[in-house]
Amino acid sequence: MAQNLSDNVCFTLYSATNALVRAFRPLLDAYDLTYPQYIVMHSLWYKNQVSLKALAQDTYLDSSTLTPIVKRLEAKGLLTRKISPEDERKKIISLTEKGVRLQQDAAELTATLMARSSMSLERLEQLRLLSLELRTELAKAEAS
Amino acid sequence: MAQNLSDNVCFTLYSATNALVRAFRPLLDAYDLTYPQYIVMHSLWYKNQVSLKALAQDTYLDSSTLTPIVKRLEAKGLLTRKISPEDERKKIISLTEKGVRLQQDAAELTATLMARSSMSLERLEQLRLLSLELRTELAKAEAS
DNA sequence: TGCAAATAAGTTGTGCGCAAACTATTTGCG
DNA sequence: CGCAAATAGTTTGCGCACAACTTATTTGCA
């Protein structure tokens, strides 16, 4: 017997994430960023001057996904990509002045959006922990 | 002060969903389905012979996303699309024999995957309810 | 009744997300 | 030391996800 879609964890997670990205869009438009681009900027605000590989690990995105995102951010003048002198296979990604400055304006967008959702901080924190647990478990299962 | 990405609900939700779709891929490959295609089949197993519009509402996907997905499922012989005689703007989507038969094999894939995650049913149910709540709240905020 | 507004579905263009394949370095081991 | 294996990043191809726009049909109201 098939169940209603929303009775299914996987589907609710999937559709909630789509709704989230959709809700972010108008907020991010003001900064000319997409949500994945915002994720990359966020990662760099926390830790700057990293290799693409390190950025991939932090964002859980594939390097083949990241390369074009990072190129677009470079085209917008938010970061630079320089070959590492120590290891010429690596590219070091560094925020520009403009990229650093963006943090002041844009870093609090998540808080803005979450406030608008009118969910309590406790429930959002529960959601964060459960998502984190699922991601970790699935990564474990994948490795084996 | 920028925080670590995984301290952020939005990001953990986003990366957990990517991990979920990634984990589904090898399971769904056996049935020649993508995860969004599986969602559409799931919806039809629950309620067959619906318009594209109704399918869009059930899956929370845009009609412009759904049209190509449904066309691919039609090409695989899993469903048909017929113009409604009552309202010629509508297309009625109906499972074929083959599409109905697929349910027996594929309907339990979610359970299979979730079992592999080794999260308790209680925590998965919490995650479902919180995702549902967020999706609902964001949809509300969007409408206003 | 006529016709503007609403509705259903499809098209186009852009940006992911990722598997698979490729190029260019570096590593490490026989 | 030499060279196969590993590693870092890019390219290609496909399928979403969705905004903006288009086409075709139906609705509703002046």
From TrEMBL, chains A, B:
<feature type="domain" description="HTH marR-type">
    <location>
        <begin position="6"/>
        <end position="136"/>
    </location>
</feature>
<dbReference type="Pfam" id="PF22381">
    <property type="entry name" value="Staph_reg_Sar_Rot"/>
</dbReference>
<keyword id="KW-0805">Transcription regulation</keyword>
<dbReference type="GO" id="GO:0006950">
    <property type="term" value="P:response to stress"/>
</dbReference>
<dbReference type="InterPro" id="IPR036390">
    <property type="entry name" value="WH_DNA-bd_sf"/>
</dbReference>
<dbReference type="GO" id="GO:0003677">
    <property type="term" value="F:DNA binding"/>
</dbReference>
<dbReference type="GO" id="GO:0005737">
    <property type="term" value="C:cytoplasm"/>
</dbReference>
<dbReference type="InterPro" id="IPR039422">
    <property type="entry name" value="MarR/SlyA-like"/>
</dbReference>
<keyword id="KW-0963">Cytoplasm</keyword>
<dbReference type="GO" id="GO:0003700">
    <property type="term" value="F:DNA-binding transcription factor activity"/>
</dbReference>
<dbReference type="InterPro" id="IPR055166">
    <property type="entry name" value="Transc_reg_Sar_Rot_HTH"/>
</dbReference>
<dbReference type="InterPro" id="IPR036388">
    <property type="entry name" value="WH-like_DNA-bd_sf"/>
</dbReference>
<dbReference type="InterPro" id="IPR000835">
    <property type="entry name" value="HTH_MarR-typ"/>
</dbReference>
<protein>
    <submittedName>
        <fullName>MarR family transcriptional regulator</fullName>
    </submittedName>
</protein>
<keyword id="KW-0804">Transcription</keyword>
<keyword id="KW-0238">DNA-binding</keyword>
